[in-house]
Task: inverse folding
């Protein structure tokens, strides 16, 4: 059986592509090991490596989602204030028109 090349900085220091590659190789290894009956190193080692990689990918995805939510929330607040200001300006114009202070044509 071929050896899986696992970087020293796995999984936190690896790129997403590297993590996905190691996870895929581990999953392939697990499948092959499960086919053999006399294996010294069982599939649990590779399952743990794959689990670590998947956990790191999920953590990174969650960080991206949280960052995007924060940006979206900030933008929503900005838009809300813009709508309030425009609405207030329209209200002032209507009141001025009703009181015949300004003449809009």
Result:
């Amino acid at each position: 059986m071929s050896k899986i090349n696992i970087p020293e900085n796995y999984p936190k220091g690896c790129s997403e592509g590297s993590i996905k590659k190691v996870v895929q190789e581990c999953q392939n290894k697990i499948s092959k090991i499960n086919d053999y009956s006399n294996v010294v190193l069982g599939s649990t080692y590779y399952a743990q490596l794959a689990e670590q990689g998947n956990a790191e990918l999920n953590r990174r995805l969650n960080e991206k989602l949280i960052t995007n939510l924060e940006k979206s929330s900030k933008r929503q607040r900005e838009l809300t204030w813009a709508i309030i200001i425009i609405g207030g300006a329209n209200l002032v114009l209507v009141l001025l028109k009703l009181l015949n202070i300004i003449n809009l044509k």
In short: Helices lie at 16-35, 43-98. The first helix runs from residue 16 to 35.
